[in-house]
Amino acid sequence: MNPLRSLVLSAVSLFGDAMSHEFVLPLFLGSCEPEDADIALFGVCWDGTSSFKAGSRFAGFAVREASFGMEEFSFYQQRSLLDVRFCDYGDLFLPPGQKERVMTDIGSAVKEIRAKKQFPIAFGGEHLVALPLILAAYEEHPNLALIHFDAHADLRPDMWGDTLSHATIIGRAADRIGYEHLYQFGIRSGSVEEWTLAQEHRTLHPFTVEALREVLEKLGDRPIYLTLDMDVLDPSLYPGTGTPEPGGISWDLLIAGLKLFRGRNLVGMDCLELAPHYDPSGVSAITMAKTLREMILLASQRKR
Ligand code: MN
Ligand code: MN
Fold it and tell me: What per-residue confidence (pLDDT) applies to 16?
């Protein structure tokens, strides 16, 4: 039996004929069995280097619970999750602390997913978890371009002496893939060193549909990895995050930006920095769940 895990459609028991009632597994709405999936969603919920308010280790279940309250169908892309073969592997086990082990385990897990020819979409946790995800994509695609949505530049040489942190992740990725292949949108906070580095390499772009379209057109068919730090959004809309930054983009602009990725040569995506306990309204978790729905639908329309 291979039921779609949907509150709307599944009238079958996930435990076969043994039970006559439906039991809903706590997995993302609309996900299918891993062996049938073309796209793989998984949680990387770890917050070991969060420099201000920790708590993104709790993103996984908050997002899945929030997903149960949304529609599978997207008005924005006029497509449904139920027409897409994606699975939810659950949260990768990432013990608190143990940064080296966590980085290694994320890297090997995403390589395993890639080896199955599944498109990886990771979510959760603080931004450092994206480093092994980006580098795994780069290993397969040496001409990778990195598109980065964030309030923060994340280009620090180090954070309190530590070169591997959620404040240095994009710098560490750019060290490998080249700063000339890095395109940053929505950035409104950073140190003087980050500002200087970004100016030197011209990595900063205004978050407008026009600027994003221009970059995507320039990239053409090149492989693209999109790393999305949800604090790029205005914190009055998305307060459930560890380093909220006043200002920021609207939901409508995020969606308009994401829609430009349709048909592009996407090779991986992540959606990070949800610390759900700072938002008792739950709207931040809902916002991430809906962003993931749009990402899954984008992945299903990627250039092949
Ligand atoms: Mn970030
Ligand atoms: Mn940020």
Answer: 55
Q: Where are the alpha helices (DSSP H) in the chain?
A: 59-67, 99-115, 130-140, 169-177, 192-201, 209-219, 251-259, 283-299
- pLDDT of 180 higher than 60: yes
- How would residue 12 be classed by pLDDT, with cut points 50, 70 and 90? very low
At residue 103, the 3 state secondary structure works out as helix
pLDDT for res 17? 63
Which residues, 6+ apart, have CB-to-CB distance to 217 below 8 Å?
A: none
Measured CA angle at 212 (ends 211, 213), to 5 deg:
95
Domain at 16-299: CATH code: 3.40.800.10
Ligand index nearest the alpha carbon of residue 188: 2
Amino acid letter for position 94: L
Give the CB-side neighbour count of residue 267, counting CA atoms within 13 A: 23
Domain-by-domain residue ranges, the chain?
16-299
Ion ligand 2 neighbours (CB, 5 A) are 150-152, 229, 231
What's the pLDDT tens digit per position in 68-87?
999 999 999 999 999 999 99
**191 CA to middle of ligand 2, Å?**
13
Taking the CA of 233 as reference, the closest ligand is 2
CA of 166 to the centre of ligand 1 (A): 6
Q: What spacing in Å lies between the alpha carbon of 33 and ligand 1's midpoint?
A: 31
- Cα of 152 vs centre of ligand 1, distance in Å, is 6
The pTM score is 0.94
